[in-house]
Design a protein that fits this description.
There is one protein chain. With about 250 residues, the protein is α/β, with parallel strands linked by helices. It has a single domain, classed as Rossmann fold (3-Layer(aba) Sandwich). The protein is about 30% helix and about 20% strand. The chain is built from eight helices and eight strands. An eight-stranded mixed sheet has the order 1-4-3-2-5-6-8-7, with helices on both faces. Helix 1 packs across helix 4. The longest helix has 14 residues. It binds S-adenosylmethionine. S-adenosylmethionine binds next to strand 3, helix 5 and helix 8.
C-alpha cells in the first residue's frame, strides 16, 4: 500500500490467532498522512512482526547515535496521536514508543512528530500484545499508557478488552520497578474492571492512597476519543498504578 511503509497484519503468519482487542480499521489515509508514511516510516516506523527482540537504545537512535539508557514509555492505541505528540514534546528526555494498527493515525503521528521536531517518538504498527510478549525485554519499559482503549461494551465482546489479568501480568514483566501504568477510560463499567484488575495484581500499587481513581492529571492532554465521550456526557476516569519490586 505504501512502498516501504507499514505492512498489513505484520505478525499474522507467525503467531497464533488470538482474541484481538482491536478491529481492523481501514480508514481513509489523507494525502498528507500517506506522504508522511512513505517518507518517514523507514526511519521512525516499526512493524510488529514478533520475530526479533528490540534494542530500545538503537530504536531511538538519532544522528548523534544510539541512546542506551533512554527511559522508554509504551503507549498502546494512540489513535490519531495528538495527545501522544503533546506528551512527547513535554518530555523530550523520554522515548515514546506508540503502537496502533490504525494506518491514518500512524501517518498523522509521524507528520506531527516531524512538524514539531520530536526525535523521541517511534511508531509501531500491529498488535501491542505481540510487541510486549515477543519483542520487548523484561523490565525494559519505564512506563505504559493506555488511553481510552476500545470499551467493547457488549457482553460477548468483553473478552476483547485489553485490561484484564493476563495482560496485566504480561505488562508487569516488561515494566521496571517504579514504572507507572496509566490508564484512562470514559466507559464506567470498564473503569470498574480496570480498578478491580489492577488492584488485584500483586505487581502494582495504586498511586492513590484511598485505592480509587486518580483525579485527571494536567499532563494528560485531551484525546480525540475522550472529547467524543465527554460530548456524550460520559465521565472520564484515570488510573495510575506503580510497578513495585515484586
Ligand atoms: C478507542 S481508540 C482510542 C485512541 C486514542 N487513545 C484516543 O483516546 O483518541 C483505541 C485504539 O486502540 C487501538 N488498539 C486496540 N488494541 C490494540 C492493540 N492490541 N495493539 C495496538 N493498538 C490497539 C485501536 O486500533 C484504536 O486506535
Amino acid at each position: 500500500m505504501f512502498p516501504g511503509g507499514p505492512v498489513a497484519d505484520p505478525a499474522g503468519s507467525h503467531h497464533e490467532r488470538r482474541i484481538r482487542s482491536f478491529r481492523p480499521r481501514r480508514g481513509r489515509v489523507t494525502p498528507g498522512q500517506g506522504e508522511a508514511l512513505r517518507r518517514l516510516w523507514p526511519q521512525w516506523g516499526l512493524d510488529i512482526d514478533g520475530l526479533s527482540r528490540i534494542d530500545l537504545g538503537e530504536l531511538f537512535a538519532t544522528a548523534a547515535g544510539p541512546r542506551p539508557g533512554l527511559p522508554v514509555v509504551l503507549e498502546i492505541g494512540f489513535g490519531m496521536g495528538e495527545a501522544t505528540a503533546q506528551m512527547a514534546a513535554a518530555d523530550p528526555g523520554t522515548g515514546i514508543l506508540a503502537a496502533d494498527v490504525h494506518t491514518p493515525g500512524q501517518g498523522n503521528l509521524l507528520a506531527l512528530a516531524e512538524r514539531n521536531g520530536l526525535d523521541n517518538v517511534r511508531v509501531a504498527n500491529g498488535d501491542a500484545i505481540i510487541l510486549l510478549r515477543e519483542m520487548l525485554a523484561p523490565a525494559s519499559l519505564s512506563g505504559l499508557r493506555v488511553f481510552f482503549p476500545d470499551p467493547w461494551p457488549k457482553k460477548r465482546h468483553h473478552k476483547r478488552r485489553l485490561i484484564q489479568p493476563e495482560f496485566i501480568e504480561l505488562a508487569a514483566t516488561r515494566l521496571r520497578p517504579g514504572a507507572l501504568l496509566h490508564c484512562a477510560t470514559d466507559w464506567e463499567p470498564y473503569a470498574e474492571q480496570m480498578l478491580e484488575v489492577l488492584s488485584a495484581s500483586p505487581a502494582f500499587d495504586n498511586s492513590q492512597a484511598d485505592g480509587g481513581y486518580t483525579p485527571r492529571p494536567d499532563f494528560r492532554p485531551l484525546t480525540k476519543f475522550e472529547g467524543q465521550g465527554l460530548h456524550k456526557g460520559h465521565l472520564v476516569h484515570d488510573l495510575i498504578f506503580r510497578r513495585n519490586d515484586t
